[in-house]
Design goal:
Length: about 280
């Protein structure tokens, strides 16, 4: 394998490909569901993709020494497959590109995306090891549904319930994403909110957050009127409730963090799909 190809593959593996692809796909889906024309939707999606690259690569660059100390073989930067300087060049370059791509979409999109990226980078730069580790996820994902609505010809912030659902999704991602790595994190001095709470309370809190987010998406567009819920909304809400119940039961039975992580993330995915299905109603 050539050196260039190895570096590119290493950078891709370092950007946290799973979350990067999911968040980018969510941006594309929300953009189209909100009625943006194809050009603006595509530009916003690429801007979000570049931002996610910057977040993921900078995270692994900052954590390279920690990852090396616990023998993380899945981290190309800590394994030496990607030079640290190259990683930082890619992370900063992707950050600048994300902002440059956001600018043509309007000042409010640029400002919103800049706040989201600053919040995410603040997590990487130190908040991940503090009791405030949840805050960047609440800010970044709370703002996320507003990117498509701010990109529209008549820019508006998303409705309160979309903010609530986005924040709930972000909370679930953070509280469960660290569950499989709690022991490794503890050995390297990372004590974010989930570490301080413990695995079981974090899983229950994440599941509860998703449930509240599902309530917001279900009831928000109709002004809280239960009678206005259609069949699809009831199906989504019922599935989320079922997953939350299963998560709480398995937590009480002492199941592993990885199992709980998968369950809560499945519930969070349903919440994301439900948010996308709200489409044109994001501003009202």
């Amino acid at each position: 394998m050539s050196s260039m190809r190895r570096t590119l593959l290493g950078l891709w593996a370092s950007c946290h490909p799973g979350p990067t692809v999911v968040v980018t796909a969510l941006a594309a889906a929300l953009s189209l569901a909100a009625g943006l024309d194809l050009g603006r939707a595509a530009l916003l999606t690429v801007a979000v993709f570049a931002g996610q690259l910057s977040i993921g690569i900078s995270n692994d660059a900052l954590d390279s020494a920690r990852d090396r100390s616990v023998g993380r073989a899945d981290k190309p930067i800590s394994m030496g497959d990607v030079d640290l300087r190259t990683a930082w060049t890619a992370a900063v370059g992707a950050l600048v590109l994300a902002l440059l791509l956001s600018a043509p979409l309007g000042i409010w999109v640029l400002l919103g995306h800049a706040v989201m990226l600053a919040s995410a980078w603040s997590y990487n730069l130190g908040l991940k090891a503090s009791a405030f580790s949840l805050v960047p996820f609440l800010i970044t994902f709370g703002l996320f549904p507003s990117l498509p609505t701010l990109t529209s010809p008549e820019p508006q912030a998303a409705a309160w319930w979309a903010w609530a659902a986005g924040a709930a999704l972000g909370a679930a991602i953070h509280l469960t994403n660290v569950l499989p790595d709690l022991d490794d994190d503890a050995r390297t001095g990372i004590r974010g909110l989930p570490h301080r709470l413990g695995g079981r309370p974090s899983a229950i809190l994440a599941a509860s957050g998703v449930l509240l987010g599902a309530l917001a998406v279900s009831l928000g567009p109709g002004g809280g009127a239960v009678g206005q819920l259609n069949g699809v909304a009831w199906v989504f809400f019922g599935l989320v409730v079922a997953l939350v119940i299963v998560t709480v039961v398995l937590t009480a039975m002492g199941h592993s963090g990885r199992t709980l992580f998968r369950l809560v993330m499945l519930a969070a995915l349903l919440l994301a799909v439900q948010l996308v299905a709200s489409g044109q109603g994001l501003v009202g």
